[in-house]
Design brief:
single chain, mainly alpha, Lysozyme, 2 domains, 9 helices, 0% strand
Amino acid sequence: MSFLRKKRVFALLLIAFLAILFFQSHLWGKWLYPIRYQQEISFHANQFGVDPLLIASIIRVESNFKPDRVSNKGAVGLMQIMPDTAEWMFQRDPFRHMTQEHLVIPADNIQMGTWYVQWLLEQFKGNVNAMLAAYNAGPGNAGKWLENGDWDGTLSDANRIPFGETRHFVTKVNYYYSKYAQFYKEGLGLQGKEALNRRP
């Protein structure tokens, strides 16, 4: 075997070895499934006692981490909060100082959305899938489906959720949650006050 050919074989083996190391690590997963605003998510999830990866999954499905996104129905920001829901929240601590303009500020939108997730989890007795359905379709609809037996509140029964958009939402959030749980086992960013001062 010539020297040049040996060099090529060695180079190919080295590339294959590095590729194996790369794809076996969590680095490729984080590259495929990035999470923006990690510090803000971590801080407010810690503030309200909610799983930060759940919040990240909701944001991924709702806005794909685009803080200025406005839906056709008028939902605003990273966590796609409806203006009417925001007005209801503005009557409660810690949002009394806020206005609709705060919905496009990433840290404020995440704070509001995370509080709302925590509130819905309380309403639905910790059932994450019911909470997700309520987040998308409203607590009245989700509660009616569960009460009437249209849906049992589990992911495996999600195909029976009456609204197609809500079925898709619940399924997609669970999908991204499983990916984030796989690749972000060490958690997200900082949980200190510096998260509040960060405005990407």
